[in-house]
Amino acid sequence: MFHFQESDRVVTKKEGIDFAREYGCLFIECSAKTRVNVQQCFEELVLKILDTPSLLAEGSKGIKKNIFKDKPPQSDAATSGCC
């Protein structure tokens, strides 16, 4: 059994949350190393796809959006509030 240490992080939780908000993504912490929340991440992803039929349609056309190139416009809603 692995024990997670805060100092082991490569990306802070705040950085992950901020990134997700900036690009309009879901944020769920997980670890492949310790298997923490991996199942939950996949389940949330499947539910989101099922709740958003356009994701299936866009994916089937081979359209891929590179979030590192196309930065969405900033809005006040994305920068305020809590997760």
TrEMBL record:
<dbReference type="GO" id="GO:0005525">
    <property type="term" value="F:GTP binding"/>
</dbReference>
<dbReference type="Pfam" id="PF00071">
    <property type="entry name" value="Ras"/>
</dbReference>
<protein>
    <recommendedName>
        <fullName>Ras-related protein</fullName>
    </recommendedName>
</protein>
<dbReference type="GO" id="GO:0003924">
    <property type="term" value="F:GTPase activity"/>
</dbReference>
<dbReference type="InterPro" id="IPR001806">
    <property type="entry name" value="Small_GTPase"/>
</dbReference>
<dbReference type="InterPro" id="IPR027417">
    <property type="entry name" value="P-loop_NTPase"/>
</dbReference>
